[in-house]
Amino acid sequence: xxxxxxxxxxxxxxxxxFALTQCVSFVVHGFxxxxxxxxxxxxxxxxxxxxxxxxxxxxxxxxxxxxxxMSLNKAKRYLExxxxxxxxxxxxxxxxxxxxTAQVKNRQPNGQGRWPAKSAKFVLDLxxxxxxxxxxxxxxxxxxxxxxIQVNQAQKQRRRTYRAHGRINxxxxxxxxxx
Length: 179
Prior knowledge:
By secondary structure, the protein is of the alpha+beta class. Helices cover about 25% and strands about 15% of the residues. It has a single domain, classed as CATH 3.90.470.10. Helix 2 runs antiparallel to helix 3. The chain starts with a strand and ends in a 9-residue tail after the last strand. About 40% of the residues are buried. Mean pLDDT is about 80; it is low at about 5-30. InterPro entries: Ribosomal_uL22, Ribosomal_uL22_euk/arc, Ribosomal_uL22_sf.
């Protein structure tokens, strides 16, 4: 799940809060959903968020972590380079079995990295959404940077169990709590 807040003032105090979360900060069907953090100056920020996206959590977490404190334009160029395999995303936390590549040497000492295309595409779409939200608010897009970015795991999808003779049944999970 992804979300993004953006802000613009003078270049010294520009703010792009990018929060990758499962919530949305507007009224949907009569209930208010919140971001995990609020920008210091909401009038100079813009947000965007995705919810329950069909993308790997671990790859998206590493992609988001690589974009922290980047300017908006630099982050968009970086993700486009990742999609073109010109730059790699460094893997820091979820890096078991991840190979090394020379493209990561200047960003991380162990050199482990990958090119998570689907995660990069989803985050790039979110950045573009946040940019358009900033333009609607009248903010200077060139001065924005990512001040906050966060990835939360999405809801579990329904499962199926495969039966004999080509049948498929739903898998039921049941819990019982007693006092």
